[in-house]
Amino acid sequence: MDDKIQTLKKWIDESDNIVFFGGAGVSTESGIPDFRSVDGLYSQKYKYPPETIISHSFFMAEPEEFYRFYHDKLIYRDVKPNRAHTRLAELEKEGKLRAIVTQNIDGLHQLAGSKKVLELHGSTHRNYCMSCGKAYGYEAVADTDGVPRCACGGIIRPDVVLYEEGLDDDVMSDAVYFIQKADVLIVGGTSLVVYPAAGLINYYRGSKLVLINKGATGYDSRANLLISEKIGEVFAQV
């Protein structure tokens, strides 16, 4: 075990007020591609750029094209939590981890057993009718070809935050609260370029900011501990 992993383990062992803030890189070891790596979602070629397709205005104007992309690139069946998800769930059960703040929409933290999960960008596992408001589960969209529709005739949309849409105020407030109060803030699997989510790090007031990411981020110089490894492999050691 190298010195950086030993330091992380020591900080975790000594703390009962840890917050984890994660992005797409947390789920890559489960087989879900991230967005900005060489092989990620944004490297693929479509008729429209992914940023355009998963925007509010495009969804409203071209729902068929939106759902074609959504089914192809944002629905992942039979994926399972990896070592990062499971270790974080264990840390919560041990009374050490207070909350997970995630940019991911895949629900893998909950599947691993985590309870306090703040989903900044929503979840593919929650869906609702845009006309009558009826709630639907994962299968309502995942198992439907084309545009999914409610019995009332309205379009069923995923409860995810699209480009041009704001984040949920209550979720953001909770995230700020837990990050402000944290003793140890572990940030992993995120390039920290998507705002306002990335700006949440600025609310951290402690001296144990851990950044775990394969690539460089704009916040590396502020980290008290910087680990450039796969996050699942790191958590497997702590």
Automatic annotation (TrEMBL):
Listed InterPro entries: DHS-like_NAD/FAD-binding_dom, NAD-dep_sirtuin_deacylases, Sirtuin, Sirtuin_cat_small_dom_sf, Sirtuin_class_U, Ssirtuin_cat_dom
EC number: 2.3.1.286
Cofactors demanded by this protein: Zn(2+)
Keyword Zinc: yes
Compartments, as annotated in UniProt: Cytoplasm
A GO molecular-function annotation: NAD+ binding
Pfam families in alphabetical order: SIR2
Record keywords, A-Z: Cytoplasm, Metal-binding, NAD, Transferase, Zinc
Binding-site residues, Zn(2+): C129, C132, C150, C152
Record: residues binding NAD(+): A24, T28, F35, R36, Q103, I105, D106, H121, T190, S191, N213, G215, I231
Gene Ontology cellular component list: cytoplasm
Family: Belongs to the sirtuin family. Class U subfamily.
Protein name (record): NAD-dependent protein deacetylase
Highest classification ranks of the organism: Bacteria, Bacillati, Bacillota, Clostridia, Eubacteriales
